[in-house]
């Protein structure tokens, strides 16, 4: 029987400390020892299995070495060593010639590779990420079929041999977070098949001029490096689609030729002065972060679909965005001087609008096509928010706007499904949501301490989640909510009055109830869980029909209720 077995799966055999003699498994092709957390030894007889194609010892944390016979296997195509304690990968000269995948990520004891790694002439994927590798052997140039080389997060890797330039099939080179790596081989441009070069957070301060000869390069990431400039001939990278240069504090300017990158569709940058971007006709994603000098935005490419502007402390206004007909996502974060955004009414494709920590903003020009809006941490004193033109909005998030005292135009948002105005502590008005009740599914108004009344939700069949916890000025619940599933409140003056069998599945109570006792819950036929953040040890609750299926928990996971007779 054993002689005919092709697959042996011992995954997660946590008590297995060593494998038995495997010499009887003459036809074995796949051996899986993954997650055998106690495994310390693989019997040397594994080397006698001439048919083995795949060996998987991932997450065998105690396994420090592989039998030498593994390095002499002739049919092995996949060797997975991730998260083991192995210090060496056995490779014999002229062996493992059919191996295609070698994965040794998170091998924190693995400091070097065998000088015979060049024998792996069929290797297409090599993953050494998060290992202790200090250098790569020159024989790596023999890996002519290698397509993906991942050495990211190799904190001890300080040198890349020039022989790597002979890997003519290499498509992806990932060296992110190699903190000690200070330079690339000057012949890097010989990697004619390279499509992605990841150098973020390395110590590289200069790109070789030959990089412009990477004719198939599509992704170049040099984020948070000490690189001072891009090659002036960067426009030769005709297939470059993504360029990430954010966090390059020493870069004073981008070359004007960047506007000639005809395939560029995503650009991430911060400190350098903006080049002329309008000529980048294919650019659809633009991220500007930490541009503390940026006071105005130049003309943008008309094909832009995503614009993200974060931590631009001097930016005061975004005006006339209406020409960006394809813009679907606009994100503004930590723009502390930004006061207005206009032209949104012309953005026919806008589906996601987020404004977070923009303390001086007081008006957003609306967009009739906008589906999602998130306006957070907007603390400008005594301001009101105008939303009348956002008539197709699906989600509206106006949170942490601590000085916002009024929201106008809610009556026109008839397509709204999710409304979150949590922690708008100065909001004093009486909200009329009559026009929203046919579509509104979730309404959060947590900690709106001065909110005095919520009107228009009585009889809503669409509302399933309601959170009015911390609304200490409210004197009553919003009314009869037939399909409510989750209800959160600090003080229960009265419960929503469900009809029939539709009642909350979760009842969430934050703070203290009026009397230390919940009101009658007999009508809540669907109620299954009650959550509370009540500081008292116990709160009285009437016994319900079917109460054997009802769970009572506080937010720390401890029971905090006692049942009493109704």
Please tell me about this protein's structure.
With 566 residues, the chain is mainly beta. The protein has a domain at 1-181: Leucine-rich repeat, LRR (right-handed beta-alpha superhelix). The chain is built from no helices and 34 strands. It has strands spanning 7-9, 30-32, 54-56, 78-80, 101-103, 125-127, 148-150, 172-174, 196-198, 219-221, 242-244, 266-269, 285-289, 306-310, 317-318, 329-333, 340-341, 352-356, 363-364, 372-376, 383-386, 395-399, 404-408, 418-420, 430-432, 442-444, 453-455, 465-467, 486-489, 506-509, 529-532, 539-542, 551-554, 561-564. It has a 25-stranded parallel beta sheet, with no helix packed on it. Strands 15-17-19 form a three-stranded parallel beta sheet, with no helix packed on it. The model is unreliable at 497-502, 511-517, 534-540 and 543-566 (pLDDT under 50).
């Amino acid at each position: 029987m054993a002689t005919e077995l092709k697959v042996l799966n011992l995954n997660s055999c946590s008590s297995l400390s060593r494998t038995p003699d495997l010499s009887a498994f003459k036809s074995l092709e796949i051996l899986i020892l993954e997650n055998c957390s106690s495994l310390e030894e693989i019997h040397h007889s594994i080397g006698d299995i001439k048919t083995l194609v795949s060996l998987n010892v991932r997450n065998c944390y105690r396994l420090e070495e592989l039998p030498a016979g593994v390095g002499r296997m002739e049919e092995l195509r996949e060797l997975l060593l991730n998260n083991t304690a192995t210090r060496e990968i056995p490779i014999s000269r002229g062996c493992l010639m059919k191996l295609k995948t070698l994965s040794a990520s998170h091998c924190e004891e693995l400091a070097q590779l065998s000088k015979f790694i060049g024998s792996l002439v069929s290797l297409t994927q090599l993953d050494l990420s998060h290992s202790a590798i200090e250098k790569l052997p020159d024989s790596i140039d023999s890996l002519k079929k290698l397509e993906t080389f991942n050495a990211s997060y190799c904190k001890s890797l300080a040198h890349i041999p020039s022989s790597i330039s002979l890997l003519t099939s290499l498509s992806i080179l990932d060296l992110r977070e190699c903190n000690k790596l200070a330079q690339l081989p000057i012949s890097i441009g010989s990697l004619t098949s390279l499509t992605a070069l990841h150098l973020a957070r390395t110590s590289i301060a200069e790109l070789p001029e030959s990089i412009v000869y990477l004719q198939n390069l599509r992704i170049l990431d040099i984020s948070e490096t000490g690189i001072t400039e891009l090659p002036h001939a960067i426009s030769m990278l005709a297939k470059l689609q993504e360029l990430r240069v954010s966090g390059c504090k020493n870069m004073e300017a981008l070359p004007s030729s960047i506007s000639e990158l005809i395939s560029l569709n995503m650009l991430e940058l911060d400190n350098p002065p903006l080049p002329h971007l309008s000529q980048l006709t294919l650019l659809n994603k633009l991220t500007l972060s930490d541009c503390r000098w940026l006071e105005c935005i130049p003309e943008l490419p008309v094909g832009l679909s995503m614009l993200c502007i974060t931590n631009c402390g001097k930016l005061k206004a975004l005006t006339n965005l209406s020409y960006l007909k394809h813009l679907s996502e606009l994100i503004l974060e930590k723009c502390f001087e930004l006061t207005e955004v206009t032209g949104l009414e012309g953005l026919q494709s806008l589906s996601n609008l987020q404004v977070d920590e923009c303390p001086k903003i007081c008006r957003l020009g609306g967009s009739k096509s906008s589906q999602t809006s998130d306006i957070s941490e907007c603390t400008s004193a005594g301001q009101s928010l105008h939303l009348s033109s956002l008539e197709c909005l699906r989600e509206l998030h106006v949170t942490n706007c601590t000085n916002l005292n009024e929201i106008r135009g809610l009556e026109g948002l008839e397509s709204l499904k999710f409304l979150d105005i949590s922690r708008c502590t100065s909001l004093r008005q009486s909200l009329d949501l009559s026009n929203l009740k046919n579509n509104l599914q979730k309404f959060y108004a947590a900690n709106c301490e001065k909110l005095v009344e919520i009107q228009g939700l009585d009889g809503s069949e669409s509302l399933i989640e309601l959170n009015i916890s911390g609304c200490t000025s409210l004197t009553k619940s919003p009314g009869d909510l037939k399909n409510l599933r989750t209800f959160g409140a600090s003080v229960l003056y009265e419960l929503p009055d469900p009809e029939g069998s539709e009642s909350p599945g979760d009842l969430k109570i934050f703070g203290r109830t009026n009397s230390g006792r919940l009101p009658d819950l007999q009508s809540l036929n669907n109620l299954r869980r009650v959550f509370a953040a009540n500081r008292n040890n116990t709160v009285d609750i009437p016994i319900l029909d079917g109460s054997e299926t009802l769970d009572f928990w506080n937010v720390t996971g401890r029971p905090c209720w006692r049942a009493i007779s109704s």
